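Build the 3D complex.
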Amino acid sequence: MKSLFPQHMQLVGKVMDMRLQRQNVVMSNLANVRTPGYKALRLEFEEDLQAALGRDAKGKMSRTEGDHMPAKFSPEGFGPDFHRTFQPHVVHGDDSVDLDKEVGVMSKNSMMYNALATVLKKNFEGLTKIIQEGQK
Amino acid sequence: MDFMTAFDIGASALSAERTQINITSMNLANVKTTRTPGGGPYQRKAVTLAAENVDSPFSVHMKSALDRELRGVRVMDIARDQRPFKQVYEPGHPDANQEGYVLYPDINVVEEMTNMMTASRGYEANVTSIETIKNMFNKALMLGT
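Done.
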């Protein structure tokens, strides 16, 4: 469906949501840095995201003939199902929380989040600009 | 997931670490205490931490699997350390027994300092994570401007 907002903006918003969830998971780990028996959690979504976007080699068809159906990813098939596949996994055998690792994950995550927010902001600014230019 | 879950988790950790520092200061302050309201020398206290659900038990059922995995932290118990008292020969001390020995709490200053540093670093890590989530939220709010 065509709309005023490009589809990748939806995607950016979803990824920002996931990054926020990852931040929550990291905070849960950091809070329990000294709790005995607590197992560190991880939230992984990059690989699933790549698969959903068709960026990895899995299930990707090459188009060798002009008559072939285009095997293109459509962000419209991006529903709550997709969300449900993200489960935090517990790292067994690694009882305590590794502070360095958590802080590393956290800063990387927040930088990416901020970058995505900037991307989204620029998108909105672009839209505004187009609207304003059309008015002249 | 609530918008503010991250703050709840961070706050629970800050309060737990602060309790640990309070208890450590209490232990350090009472290194030489021979009289307590309960009688006998001061007994060293130890803090036990436990992972805790972020929300009330009812709201836990209303949430997604991911949210149920998130844990804050709380102080489960402040236990009395059962290690034996230190005996020091001080016949002139008012609390000395018949043989002239005074019972002092067996508190290792190095151990307490280590606990304090660990708690203080944990506190700092949690402050940093709260700062980070604040930045993220601010960045999201900036989208509208």
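The beta strands of chain A are 41-42, 89-90.
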